[in-house]
Amino acid sequence: MNKNTETKQRGKLEIIAGSMFSGKTEELMRRLKRAEYAKQQVLTIKHHIDKRYTQDHMCIVSHAGRERGAFVIADDAQGFEKILELAQSDVEVIGIDEVQFFSTPIIEVIQYLVEHGKRVIAAGLDLDFRGEPFSVMPTLLALADDVTKLKAICVVCGRDAQHTQRMVNGQPAKYNDPLILVGAAECYEARCRNCFVMEKPAKVLPHTATKSMCECAS
Ligand code: TMP
Ligand code: MG
Ligand code: ZN
Description:
Elements: H1 3-7, E1 12-18, H2 24-37, E2 42-47, E3 59-61, E4 67-69, E5 71-73, H3 77-86, E6 93-97, H4 105-115, E7 119-125, H5 137-143, E8 146-150, E9 152-153, E10 160-161, E11 163-168, E12 171-172, E13 188-191, H6 207-217
Parallel strand pairs: 1-7, 1-8, 2-5, 2-6, 6-7
Antiparallel strand pairs: 3-4, 9-10, 11-12, 11-13
Bound molecules: thymidine-5'-phosphate, magnesium ion (MG) and zinc ion (ZN).
């Protein structure tokens, strides 16, 4: 073993993924609390967009109403700089909620923190309302040391739900609706694969292959 590998302690990346109402923020808060019980220095971060459930926006809040103080970070160069500044010195654990709202430089910031010995725990939606991978999440899931995929309960049938259904005036949202719409139970529902409704544009699969699969299924 050379001297470098002896001395350089790398950190760890943990991702908590899943649909809305699956308990991601609760799980993030649980892990951060445990670290605090162990007298570790914890830094909690949230994206500035998410203003649900709080007046002063200085905390992360679960759907169940539990809160935890957090630094609100802008999704720009200053914001990323701020994360690195806050995470300096004795901070050992960094919790990031709603990580899917951050743009791609957050990946580099997280990798830097992990390279420099920090335990980073990031919670975020793995799928958007279209049922497609959400922004930075696929990359973070690939880079993670540890992935937890939580499921909610489908509001329609009660099975495990991995999708988030956006509702607009009581109807499923359209594929071309905007990606970002901050909200909670007033416009989103957890749904299983069977109950999730989304009309996707033209199929990319070869027609012959899908045709034979349909025939097998019927
Ligand atoms: P949650 O994961 O804590 O439940 O919060 C997810 C947030 O993301 C919530 O404000 C709604 C928002 N959101 C979008 O902006 N676009 C989407 O496609 C989905 C599914 C959620
Ligand atoms: Mg949450
Ligand atoms: Zn269902």
